[in-house]
Amino acid sequence: MDNIGAIITSYRKKAHMSQIELAEKLQEYGIEVSSKSVSAWETGRNEISARVFLHACRILGIPDCLEEYFGSNPNDPLAMLNEEGKQKALSYIDLLIHPTSYARESKVIPYPAAPAGKPSMTRMRLYDARVSAGCGNFLDSDYYTTIEVPSGEAKGADFAVTISGDSMEPVFHDHDMVYVHQQETLDDGEIGIFSLNDNAYIKKLKNDSSGTFLISLNQKYKPIPVHPDRDSFRIFGKVCRYDRSVFGQ
User: Fold this and answer.
1) Per residue, what are the HEC states of the chain?
2) What is the pLDDT of residues 56-109, one digit of tens each?
């Protein structure tokens, strides 16, 4: 059994990647870490979370994290083979894949043109996790469903999310779906989707001389302060469709 820090170190060096480069790659997946965090994992001073480790496995090309950690994976059909046997098995798999008669077919679902009189449709990602209009929910960016929505409604949007809670009433309600334009910055007063300490919110941004806050439209909810020096904070994007007259109140 090898420790996770040693696994990361070994594969990072095989990939000729520095700790800084690994941290930057993780940031591309929305994981806010520094090279100091990578160093702490590798030396065992800090323990890496399962979510971050799985992303690191993808970046570093670790094919089987169970085998790397436990020494073997009983569910892997190649586990009982030595290196020469594994290479022969992989060569045979490659032989089966490239003649297309043995390769698994990819299903392509056609999207025909909209009939006359009906609005044209566009495909969009609807994330499975609901964003909170209340206490906060985690938004896992790896899990989503592709849906069809009217092109006119989704104009300018990159993805959609479903709301949970009542803190953004009277504009947004529980179970409402909203369209979001993906961007990393927002102006003061704009409505967006945010991640604060791994919880996802739909809120109005207040960013002025008094500080940074996530504001609810429902007056019974207090503003949520953001502390850039100690909080993990990220902007996912700007909500595209809303009634500006209500926001101005």
Assistant:
1) CCCHHHHHHHHHHHCCCCHHHHHHHHHHCCCCCCHHHHHHHHHCCCCCCHHHHHHHHHHHCCCCHHHHHHCCCCCCCCCCCCHHHHHHHHHHHHHHHCCCCCCCCCCCCCCCCCCCCCCCEEEEEEECCCEECCCCECCCCCCEEEEEEECCCCCCCCEEEEEECCCCCCCCCCCCEEEEEECCCCCCCCEEEEEECCEEEEEEEEEECCEEEEECCCCCCCCEEECCCCCCEEEEEEECCCCHHHHCC
2) 888 888 776 656 555 555 555 566 667 777 677 666 665 555 444 444 443 433
Q: Which one-letter amino acid corresponds to residue 25?
A: K
| Strand-pair category, 131-132 with 159-164 | parallel
Sites in the chain below the pLDDT cut of 70: 1-2, 64-81, 86, 89-119, 128-144, 241-249
Rg (CA), the chain: 23
pTM, full prediction: 0.49
